[in-house]
Design brief:
single chain, binds uridine-5'-diphosphate, 13 helices, 6 strands, 53% helix
């Protein structure tokens, strides 16, 4: 568990976004994992996740507040959250500015359709070269299509950890591209779901808002976050 914390991006979000912009501009390949307690908990049970978290070529950012708090408890110098949804929004903005291409994979068909409309309206210079919903059975077939199209940005919204495992499986086949597993971000950016009000974001309680809105998340929260915190206090 502790070695995962050593792999976390420890600079400010400002520096992170500057580097991201340059990587996109210069066609440097980058795979970003947005870590929350669930990611680290699952990695301990799953060799593939474990391997990608320890792979130096992968960037891991602290998405959830649980990760930031735990890092501090373990004396790792982690500055702040860098949420996946912010990364997704920034990539759309940068892609628009730099006239890049994007491939969208994941979420429901109606979500993907609204997302395409939002992007065409708000980011007109960003070219969508592929958009597939996340409920088609053959995910490998879709990834082979992504490999063929060589997008500058690849956003995968299938949920943790499937989105990361799939990206990692094909990463070697790409020469360029910014790859991120963005979880429920398509639902929010497309307008199908609301992101938490500012109060929750500011007070780092976005997780609470999501549970209040979708009580079925509580089981998942217990399995990953509560057990995670117990584990961290033990290590400490
Ligand atoms: N999803 C998908 N295919 C599946 C399961 C989930 O495309 O087989 C999508 C789902 O529609 C949602 C996203 O994956 O858009 C996962 O969202 P969630 O909020 O659970 O992700 P989190 O950010 O909590 O990891």
């Amino acid at each position: 568990m502790k070695e995962y914390f050593g792999r976390l991006y420890s600079n400010t979000s400002k520096n992170f976004y500057n580097a991201l912009y340059n990587n996109l501009k210069n066609a440097h390949k980058q795979f970003i994992i947005t870590a929350n307690p669930e990611t680290f908990m699952k990695a301990e049970q799953d060799q593939t996740i474990n391997k990608m978290l320890l792979d130096d070529s992968v960037t891991i950012v602290p998405d959830g507040i649980g990760i930031v708090k735990a890092a501090k408890m373990l004396s790792f110098d982690i500055k702040e959250r860098i949420p996946g949804i912010d990364i997704a929004n920034k990539l759309l903005e940068y892609g628009n500015k730099l006239n890049k291409t994007v491939y969208l994979f994941g979420a429901k068909e109606e979500v993907i359709n609204s997302l395409k409309k939002v992007i065409k309206k708000e980011y007109p210079n960003l070219k969508i070269i592929g958009a597939k919903n996340g409920y088609e059975k053959d995910r490998d077939k879709i990834f082979k299509d992504i490999v063929k199209k060589e997008p500058d940005i690849v956003l995968v919204a299938l949920g943790i950890p499937e989105q990361e495992k799939l990206i990692y499986k094909y990463l070697d086949k790409f020469n360029k591209g910014i790859f991120v597993g963005v979880g429920g971000s398509f639902d929010v950016i497309s307008g199908h779901k609301k992101r938490a009000p500012k109060f929750f974001i500011k007070t780092n309680t976005e997780w609470l808002y999501r549970i209040l809105r979708e009580p079925k998340r509580i089981r998942r929260f217990y399995d990953s976050n509560i057990k995670f915190m117990f584990k961290i206090s033990k290590i400490k």
